[in-house]
Amino acid sequence: MQADYDILIVGGGMVGGSLAVALGETGFSVGLVEAHPYGSGSEPAYDDRSIALAYGSRRIFEGIGLWQGMADELTPIQEIHVSDRGHLGVTRLDCKEEGVEALGYVVESRIIGRVLNERFSQVANLELISPAKLEDISITRDAGTVELNCAGTLKTVRARLIVAADGTMSAIRDKLGIEVQRKDYGQSALIANVSTERPHEFVAYERFTDSGPLALLPMSHGRCSLVWTHNQEELARTEAMDDEVFLNALQERFGYRLGRFTRVGQRASYPLGLLRAKEDIRSRVVLIGNASHTLHPVAGQGFNLGLRDVAVLADLLFDADQQGVDPGSLELLGQYTNWRKGDLDRVSEYTDILVRLFTNPWPPLAHARSGGLMAVDVITPLKRLLARQNMGRTGHMPRLARGLPLQAYPKRNVQ
């Protein structure tokens, strides 16, 4: 029985949608399943949520052909200022030292969503299945089969490869019984957009406090995107504050590098933890993005790590298509997991160590942290390594991660 699609991507968010567009350079038929109707987003507002794009993610979007659609609507991060509240140590990263125009960018998620939505209709080998919710999945030697609930109507869809891009609470991962490693940090991130008295001058701030990291990212119209980590007891108190009291509390934690905080938008919060799937592949199935790995937001690595999943998987699938290789074969998927393992392990450990190191109140460790930040600031190789890690420019990079379209080089043997 012939499959309905060569590749079925379940989860049409920013990671799954980016993969769907990238696979437009292949001859594979692609289905994209999304639970929410496309084009249902709200108009731009002060409270639009933002994400930090590493410089490496810019190169991936360039390779996919999506960058030009968002380039005029994002804010560059030209410097990163890292400090530890109550201690002298500081590390400063500057894009000029790395020879790039920005270390990263801040973009409102609605902008990426809009660019993806506009591009979907231009991808000839892509079919959208939306709104649709996954009800069940089964795997045979030749294909994966999913049961979808499409507005009350059940639909059966078969594909040679099923890509789980359905987020932290992945239904595919759970239904297949793929175990995960979890770590609950006992923290939540409070997010909001804030305005400041002084211009941010394209500097991103990562300030570690005794309750966890506090990040301010430069945005358009003089705003900053705030990610403020709280333990559970502090979160309840902060959420109950009116705007004036909230801004005063934020001022006390952050300081006056940007003058006074003058305005805060709508606040929201979500719990923080570390999740890693114990398996990223099964026959006919691959997990990417948050379905595979969900991280603490410290250093802003989460979405960028998922986009690197996209770059590697698209690279391998393009070559598989050129050579007539089965896209769902364990041999091919094994190459994917081997390629991604180093990056996933390194970034997961990096973010976890940062959280544990900078929330430990032990005085000798606090002094060591301060000395470490000062050392990184003056030892060029260490500083360069930290900058490249934050930029997503380490390890063996696929074509898209170098800003190249998939057809830039001759095919490689993926068998």
SSE layout and pairing:
Layout: E1 5-10, H1 14-22, E2 30-33, E3 50-54, H2 55-64, E4 75-77, E5 79-84, E6 90-94, H3 95-98, E7 104-108, H4 109-120, E8 126-129, E9 133-139, E10 144-150, E11 153-164, H5 171-175, E12 180-196, E13 203-209, E14 212-218, E15 223-231, H6 232-239, H7 243-254, E16 261-264, E17 268-277, E18 281-282, E19 285-287, E20 293-294, H8 302-323, H9 330-358, H10 363-378, H11 380-391
Parallel strand pairs: 1-2, 1-11, 2-8, 5-13, 11-19
Antiparallel strand pairs: 3-7, 4-7, 5-6, 9-10, 10-11, 12-15, 12-16, 12-17, 13-14, 14-15, 17-20, 18-19
Helix pairs in contact: 1-4, 1-8, 8-9, 10-11
The CATH topology assignment is FAD/NAD(P)-binding domain
Q: Please indicate the percent range of residues in DSSP E strands (runs of 2 or more).
A: 25-35%
Structural class: alpha+beta
Radius of gyration: 22 Å
Number of domain units: 1
CATH homology superfamily = FAD/NAD(P)-binding domain
Tell me about the largest β-sheet. 9 strands, mixed
Q: What is the helix tally?
A: 11
Terminal residue distance: 25 Å
Low-confidence stretches: 42-46
